[in-house]
What does this fold into?
Amino acid sequence: MRYQRAELPLKLDGLAAARRFFAGCLAEENSARETLWVAHVDDEARCLHVSWHWGDRAGGDFPIREIIADAATLGSAGIVLAHNHPSGDARPSDSDCRATRRLATAAEALDCAILDHLVFAGSECTSLRQLGYL
It folds into this structure.
């Protein structure tokens, strides 16, 4: 896991802003393995903190406890997630959907919302919010 302090006033206020930001993040990474990016935002969608977690070709690490601990420490109002699929298929897997729902349930206890989870594959991007999973 690596951490990056987001420079303010980066705002992730909607799908287009999140897609642009995470596309840039993922472009810098090795696309042969999954990487999960997590952005914590305040109640005005200003980015407070960004972290990323590496996986491999078979899948990525989805550290729910760490994400929730960061949300509690930062006082996050929302979380935006993004990860890549090295397979080239931007559709979320069943495990992507299950993990996102588990995270949303845990975050709800902190009055923190999962705003979206984006899945990237090449130039394609799928939003779990747009698909109705959030």
About this structure: The chain is about 30% helix and 30% strand. The chain has a mean pLDDT of 89. The helical segments are 15-27, 64-74, 94-108.
